[in-house]
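Subgroup meeting minutes
Present: P.N., E.W., G.H.
Scribe: E.W.

1. P.N. recapped why we're keeping a running log of single-chain structure predictions: easier to compare across weeks, and new members can see raw inputs and outputs side by side.
2. G.H. added today's entry (604 aa).
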Amino acid sequence: MFLIPDRHALRRLRHDLALVILGLPLTLLAALTLLPLIAVSTVLSIVWVGVLLLPLTLTLASAWARLDRARLHRWGLDVTAPDYRPRGERAVGLLRLVTDSRRWLDLAFEAVIALPVRVLTAGVTLAWALGAAGGLTWWAWSPLLPEQGIMLPGQWALAMILGLVLAFSFPAMVHALALLDVVVTAPLLGGAVPGSRIRRAIPAPPAPEADARLRESAWTRMTVAFLAFVLVVVAWPVTAAVYGVHAASAMLVTIAAGAAAILALRWPWAGLSLSVVAAGSMMLVTLPAQAAAPWPWPVTSLLTHCLTLLVLAVLHRWYWTVSTWSAGAVLTLIALLITDASAMPDGTLREVMTNGVVLLAISGGTMLLGITVRQWVLVSGQVEQAQTLSAEEVRRRYELEERGRIARELHDVVAHSMSVITVQAGTAKFRLPGLDASTEQEFEDIAVSSRQALGEMRSLLATLRTDEDLAEVPMPGLEDLEDLLRSTRASGASIVAEISPAQVPPTVGLTAYRVVQEALSNALRHSRGAAIRVQVATVDGALLVEVINTRPRHSQDPIPGSGLGLAGTRQRVRALGGAVEAGPRADGGFAVVARIPLPDPLPR
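Output recorded in log:
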């Protein structure tokens, strides 16, 4: 039973297959359209025709990049859409696209980087699936093979076991390949949106560290990968031809040396280890040809080692690059110690020692250059951070000053007037003898409403006067709706309410309270005497708030208002992911309907 995949696993496998399999044909189409355009633009640039084709090429590359972002969105990861430089008008504005580095990055990714990644992921997926199908059906088609003869039971069992292993590991393998595609694609297309499905697989760069931002930059990764690729392409045939090394051995050691620089981008310990192993392996495979070519450090091996040193020096702490340089020096010393000077031709030992000295000098200079660049980057980042913090503090100070001015105006004008109303309404029965009971109750209701408004005004003033956390300031919620309805009925409004008790977060309760408060206020201003129905209930994982008033019995001139109440209500609800519908009804009334999503309950 546990081997049977559930619905969630099948859905994930379907999305993974769609990402991996469909990515290859789309990438092939992108490469087939972009590479010829790049070639034509480069060739015809001397007659300015190619310059006019470059904006078209970059626009097309950005279109393929948007398609890749849409693929990742359907898979479950949202990628931040980059800010492209706006194009101007006419031909001059079109040429501005050539100066947009973001479009050039799209072109480099879609035309060069994406193709080998998609070939690898799609090829492994198809090979895995064919291996699983072939192993499970070995008994059916193996007798058709030439010279197969009678199939032994052991062969059949081994093929079945292999097919079962491949079949049951197929979903995990496809998901791993999909993650590989996503991890390579998402940073180069804009970076994962915070809160997306695999945000931990593609961590956002820490903002305060300038070297971390440089390390996570797509341009840094692409540049190092390009240089490593060029060095591998050059070193492989040179090592095989000049040093007489077998092509397979030359391929392995050169790829390992290039991969060390790429690994050093993220994991310095892996880059250091692989660089030392690759350099030692290169010394061993080229040892027989030490008298005919530079040894123990071929030129290509020296350049690749310096690339790893530069990456470690610029992007990581100083001891990583010093350790790598020291490891290179130790390898050189070991090579000199194991060299049999008596068996070497005249002058060969001197050339070996010269090669070692050149290695130490060039790699040491590279290390010092990288450390200097790193210090410059760190200082620049600290200066930028200080300027940003200074600007932020100035902005906050101006904001607090403006909010303080608004708070003073509200306190001196509105709060004072509300206090006068509260006092007048509360003392009316003492100042005006002979009032009947209903009139005294009317004044008491006015006093209660004004005291409540004054309390909320004081909370608002506290909010304006500070930017600290105001969680201790009491805010109304669903439990205060009854008091709101009671005070509104005291004004003569006819209200029928259906409020279902629900446990909601304070922010949702406050937003629902404000929606009802604003809707009742509008009904009293514009439809005096109309019947009002208020309903608050939980429906399909959301809090549904409805305030509907009928057509007023008599025509009347509405009390003027600012018209900003419903706009503010929409902003409140939209901030929580909900929506508000407000408008007249067919019977002449007015309805305000708000739907506020409720967060999922935490698992116990």
